[in-house]
Amino acid sequence: MSKSFTGKFQITNWQETTFQEGEAESKQSYAKVSQQYTGDLEGTSSLQYLMCYQTKSHAIFTGFEQLDVKVSGKSGQFIIQHHGKFVDGVASSVFSVVAESATGDLSGLTGSGEFCSTENGQADYKFLLNL
Questions:
Q1: 3 state SS of 74
Q2: 8 A C-beta contact, residue 44 and residue 9
Q3: Is residue 112 scored above 90 in pLDDT?
Q4: CATH number of the CATH domain containing 85
Q5: What is the count of structural domains for the chain?
Q6: What is the pTM of this model?
Q7: Domain span at residue 77?
Q8: Which of the two ends of the chain, N or C, has the fewest CB atoms closer than 10 A to its terminal CB?
Q9: What is the dihedral of CA 37, 70, 46, 92, to 10 degrees?
Q10: 113 CB contacts (<8 Å, ≥6 apart)?
């Protein structure tokens, strides 16, 4: 049975490198990111995004994020795969837990979720997890 978990994450480090520039404002880039989770999930994560900007204010991205967290009294790691977009300063993503990626007390974890950025490098998250 899936249970909902909510909270916030804060970006603690963002390093982005452009590897392809197109006409006008289009470009492709790679970002290496670190985050701190609070709320129902407590811990940290590291992730890598591949991003395709159509303009400075519009992009799509995909990536993998490894979370090292405590949830419902259980500790471990798991990986999520992102499918997101950035539009006019707001980033959002839907994601799913990568099969068989969970370790520790979270072994066997499955689920999905979403986030939407707020301000100052923060975002609200929601996970639907089967613990």
A1: strand
A2: no
A3: yes
A4: 2.40.350.10
A5: 1
A6: 0.95
A7: 3-130
A8: N
A9: -50
A10: 80, 94, 95, 96, 125, 126, 127, 128, 129
Paired tokens of 120: 């100052």
97 alpha carbon, distance to own chain's centre? 11
The 3-state DSSP class for residue 128 equals: strand
- pLDDT category of residue 1 using cuts at 50, 70 and 90: confident
Cα torsion at 2, 83, 86, 70 (round to 10°)?
40
The pLDDT value recorded for residue 23 is 85
Round to whole Å and give the CA distance between 109 and 40.
15
Residue pair 130/109 in contact (Cβ under 8 Å)? The answer is: yes
Q: pLDDT > 70: what percent of the chain?
A: 100
> How far is C-alpha 87 from the chain's CA centre?
16
30 residue type, one letter: Y
